[in-house]
Structures are given as structure tokens and as C-alpha cells.
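Q: I'm writing a short explainer about AcrR family transcriptional regulator for a general audience and would like to include a description of its predicted shape. Could you first generate the structure from this sequence?
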Amino acid sequence: MSARPSPRDRLIDTAADLFYERGLPNVGINEVTEHAGVARMTLYNNFDSKEALALAAFERQAEARQALFANRLKGARTAVAAVKVMFDVSEQLATKPGFRGCAFTNVAVQNPYPQGPMHALVRAHKTWIRAAFRDIAARAGHRKPDTTAQQLVALLDGASVEAFIQGSVEPIRASKQAAVILLSAPQ
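A: Of course. Here's the predicted structure. Afterward I'll give you a sentence or two in plain language.
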């Protein structure tokens, strides 16, 4: 039998779920504490503000996503296999109930402060994804791996948005095919 998560962890996990489901601006502190089963004072003993809670929630999500991608990439023996992994992980995430696109893209769009800490967190996560694609492009022998990485990120992000809009993983599968063609193109 596993121990119940700490109140802090319950707040972070609950906030992450609610922010993803309803959008950061649409979720209040009272809703988070009620769903987490903790007193409001517990929240303020752990976090200075809703933004601090949101940052903790999205930091945890970024770490989990990056670990998921990194663990799956370990088994990829070729650049093409690696690029497929990136899209396969996205497809896996898109099949979960309540999928609403990329949590990081969503919060970036919802947050009105592009110079704030939330955007910095999103940029750091997207930079990690771009670096993974850059490594894949370099492994494939692309002369301009940074450009290829930008193209692959655009395919992945667009696929995630379209998967949500269409309610289907087909955009991710189609984008994976385009990514393989792009990666396999002579350089």
C-alpha cells in the first residue's frame, strides 16, 4: 500500500489537472484546495501565490515529459527511429482522456505576460524539445540541424493542436510521416 501524497504534492497534482482541463485563468485557488482536499492555509504555507503553484505544477509536468521523451529516445538506434519516438510519445499523450493539446502551448497562450516566469518555463521546455530534435537532425547528417529542429518542432506543435481540434491522433501520425520525410531528405 503506497503512502498518500503530501498536501503539497496533492496541491501540485490537482492544480496541474485543473489548469490543463479548464485553463489557468479559469481556475481559482478555492477550487484547487477543495479538489486537493486541503485547507486554503495549507496552500499559502506552501506557495506564495496561484502563480507560484502554477509554476510548480508546470515544472513537474516539464520534468515528467522530458523524462518520458528521454527514456523512450534511449532505445532509438537511428535518427529516423528517434524522430518517430518523439511523435509516438505525443500520440500516446493525445490518447489520454481529456486531451487538450500541449499543456505548455496552452499556458503560454493563456498567460498575458510574455516576459514572466511562466513563459520562461514554457520556453525552457520548448528549448529542451528543440534541442532533442536538433540532436536527431545532426545524427541524420543535416547540415543545418537548428533549422531542421525548428521545422520538426513546428510539425509536432501543429500536430498536437490539430489532434485536439479534430479529436483524433491522425494529425500526429501524418506529421510523423512528414517528419520522417524531412529527416530523410538529402542534405
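A: For your explainer, you could say: Residues 50-73 form the longest helix (24 residues).
Q: Perfect, that's easy to follow.
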